Amino acid sequence: MKIRLIFNEKKFEYDIFNLIRAFYPEAEMEIRYEETDQFMSEEAEPSSGEEDLPDFVWRIRYESGRIFVETVYAGNQKTGRETEPEEQNQTIVRETLHLTDPDNRTETKNQLKRLVYSGLVKYCSHDLPWGDLSGIRPVRLVTKMLEEEHLSPAEAAKMMQSRYCVSPQKAQLAASVAEREQTLLKQFDYRSGYSLYVDIPFCPSICLYCTFGSHPLSAWKEAVGPYLAALYRELEMISELMRDVRLDTIYIGGGTPTSLSPDEMNDLLTRLEQLFSFSDLKEFTVEAGRPDTISDTMLSVLAAHPVSRISINPQTMHQKTLDLIGRRHTVAETENAFLRAREMGFDNINMDMIVGLPGEGAEEVAASLRAIERLAPDGFTVHSLALKRAARMNRFREIWRPVSFENSIEIMDAVAEGAARMQMSPYYLYRQKNMAGNFENVGYAAGGKACLYNILIMEEKQTIVGAGCGAATKLILPDGSKGGRAGNVKSLQDYLVRTDEMMERKRALIINQ
Fold first, then answer.
1. Does residue 204 sit in the same domain as residue 176?
2. Helices marked H in 242-330 — which ranges?
3. Residue 360: inside a domain, yes or no?
4. pLDDT, tens digit, 9 for 90 and up, residues 422-437
5. Whether residues 171 and 204 fall in one domain
6. d(C-alpha 418, C-alpha 385), whole Å
7. What global pTM score does this model have?
């Protein structure tokens, strides 16, 4: 299917693009701009002389105080729903939107999106769990309502429904997460401190859905030493620049940090202790995501340092799926790594799970949930599969077309019920583009086990200083406003060559804040 969007101004085009994409994730979409005054014409469909006709044409025209919206179904290909011959070339939406406050850009965008969304719901005969929202942080909208509009969580949930067409269930979820985030963050003065992110960009193998800039260790083994040397230089500079600022949390991610050797991990953790004051540290997370990298020796190294939280991530408890997506470990290795970590005293272990993996439906997800529940982790994060453009599973999508990518409200409900049985509550939430079922990622945790770093970075509440390949530094000023961003290159090869450049970029950002 091909969908064409035509605008007379460059305004809100990507908001509308992403909203339509949510209803037609497989469609080929394009944006065009027009200067002509002809818009709400009787012949709105494309010219028959055009070789590659779209199936739908959306036209949006801005005028003073009004927006004209029109969409025409040209009926050239299958639309994902049964259509009668008389539906071809029909006008689906033809509306004039009179703006309540033309100078208010946010309200104008919201009005336009509601109108487009209502037309899509009517034509496609289904709605979306998150309504017309296309951003990744719906909880931030609720938090703003709580803090700036002084609404109660229940009032904010109702506002999410009316303002953004969010379902009652998801509105309540967002409100619950926002309320818990506020409670957790009240425990300390987060705006006067900062968090440190350290990236280890190596993995044993690359999963088919991954776009994190990970590098397979088999091909990059010789680069580990030079990478760590460059990383230590960057960390030394950060420790000097931030010496008068309180360090609240540390998060070592990637990649798979535990793909380093135990000696390399020990050296990294020792360097961090030497360079930074841990006197006020509230949380220290190491992603031990791949069970095939978690040996007893590695666990002993982590236990010998003030690491307070680790994550052992099965993604699924089905061996067939693990083999299919390129995770070269077994279900038994996941269980053994978890149990050994427990025996060695780790009392805050998170486990990640992905729903929407190829070939997995409600029955498979339920079985994975039961297996995870038996292990009784302290945190549980569920990700809705998001097939980004760069993922190998997306680039070679034709191979997977016979395999289902299923997610549904029933599956997400089952996940929430599983978390509740483990006595966990949701504490952070975010969304991504192209997610299976247009759902969300949710972090659940038992009391006292929520990851503060996840909240701080997702809701942009605190300065995060990033070190390593692909790591980003984002400054948040004391008043809560953004103070700028400096990102490191994602390519490992480029990072090694341009380390000095990355350091100077970060130095300039921090010094000039």
1. no
2. 262-275, 296-303, 319-325
3. yes
4. 999 999 999 977 666 6
5. no
6. 19
7. 0.88
